[in-house]
Amino acid sequence: MDTTKWLRKWGAILLGSVLIAGGFSSAVQAADRPVVMVVGFQNRVSKSKVTLTDFQMEPEEMLPGPRTTLEAELSLSPRIDVRTMDTDVIRARYDEVAIMEQLGKGEIIPELENEADYLIYGYLTNVSNIKSQSGTIGVGGKDKTAHVELSMRVIDAHTGQVVFVTTADSRRKSELNYHAVFHRNMAGTETAVSRALDIAAQNLAYKFLQAM
Amino acid sequence: MKAFSRIAVAALAGFSFLTGSVSAAGLFHNAGSGPRIFIGEVQSYGDYELKREAFDTFADKLYQNMTAKNFQVVSRADMTNEAGRHDEGNSEEDAKLSVIHMDAIIHGHWFEHGEAAAKLVRYADAAMGRKYFYDDVRIENWRKQSGVPYRLSPAVAQQAEQIAQTYGAQYMLFVNLKDVDVRLKHTMFASRTERETRGKKVTAVVDYYLLNTANGKVFEGHCENKKTAQLMNFAIVKNGKGMNVDEMLNQVMAAQVEDIVADLNKNGMKAVQ
Question: A53 in contact with B at a CB cutoff of 8 Å?
Fold first, then answer.
C-alpha cells in the first residue's frame, strides 16, 4: 500500500469518527445537562407605614423583572437547560410548601418527574431608599440611593434538599440634588429600583453558574 | 472488516473523549471542604417575634456566609422549620428539631426564663422544673462560664444524632433570633417630624447553638448588634442619613451572620471537639 492510499484511508476513518462522535456527544450532552426551572420570585418585603416610606410601587409589581433577567442570563449557559413556564401555572403546580412536604417525605411529585433537576426560588428580601443629606442654607444637598436585595434558593427536585443559597444586592442613585454646585435630577426611584433589580438578578445568575 | 472495526474503535474513542462526564445529579455538593453542618432551625424562642420572612432571609444570609467561609452546609427545604416551631408540622422531624433547639437553649448560658416564648417556657419547666431557672446563684455562675460547652439531655442527643446521620452531617446549627427592638429616637433635631427625619434604632439579639452529634457537646454563642439612622433638619442645618426599618434590619442581619460564622470558626468548632 503506497503512502497516499494509506493516508486517504486513515483520513476518511478519522473524519468519520469525529463526525459520528460529535453527533453523539451533542445528543448525550443535551440529554445529560441538568434541567433548571426558575419557579419565580416571591416577596418578603412588607409594605407598611413604618417600613416602606416613600415607594409608590407595590413590591409585587417588582417581581417579574428579576425572574425574566435571571432566566435570560441562565439560558446563555451551555451547561444547563432552563425550562420556563407560565407564572400562574408555576404558582399552582410548584407551590413551595407542598414541595417541601412531599419531597421531605421522599416522594417524587408527578409533575416534577423528568421535568426538572433543580428548582430555583427567588425572593425580594429588601427594597429601600437610603437618604443622605448635608449642608446649610444655599449650600448643600441630598441624595437618595435605591437599595435592593434578592435571594435565591436552589432545591434539588429529586431529594427536596436545599443545595445552594445565595443573595445579591445592588444600589443605584435615584436622586441627586446639590445646590450651589449643580442641580441634577436622576432617573427617578422607579427606574433606579428597576435597574438595581436587573443587576442583582444578573449577579444571582453569575453566582449560580459559579457554584456549579 | 478490518476497516470497519477501525472506524468503530475510532468512533468510540472520539465519543468518549468529546462527551466528557456531564452529570445532572450532585452539582452543588462539592462546595466547601470544611466541616459539614446541618442547619436545623432558624427561629425565635423569645417573647417577641418577627414575621417568618425575616427568619427566611436570615437563614439565606447565614447559608451564604457559611459556604463562603468553606463550611459544607446542608439544609432541608424548610430551613427555618416554621412548621415545627409552631407545632403545625406533619412530620416527626419537624417536631424533633424544635425540641433539640429548645433543649440546647434551656441548658445554655444565655437562657432567660422570664423572656422566653410560651412554648419554650413550658418545655423548660417540664424538663428541669421551674425552680431550676430561678436559682440566682446557679444562673450567675453559669453565665460567667459563657463559652464553656455543655451537653443536651441524653434522649434528645440521641434524636439529634439520628437526624444528623440522615443528612450525612456531624454538626447541627440552631439559631434563636430571640429579640428585635425598634425604637424611634428623639425629634429635637427635626423641625419637620416626618418618618424619614425621625431617628431610628434597631437592636437584634441572637443566640446560636452548634451541636456535635458525635459527642453530644453544644457550643452556645451570643451576639447583639445595633444600627441607628438619623436625619437632622434643625434650623439652618441639614445633616445625616435616613433609611427605613427594613433596611436597618437587613444591615443588622448581615452583620450578625458574619459575627456568627467568624465565632463558629474561631471558637465554636474547637469547643465542641
Answer: yes
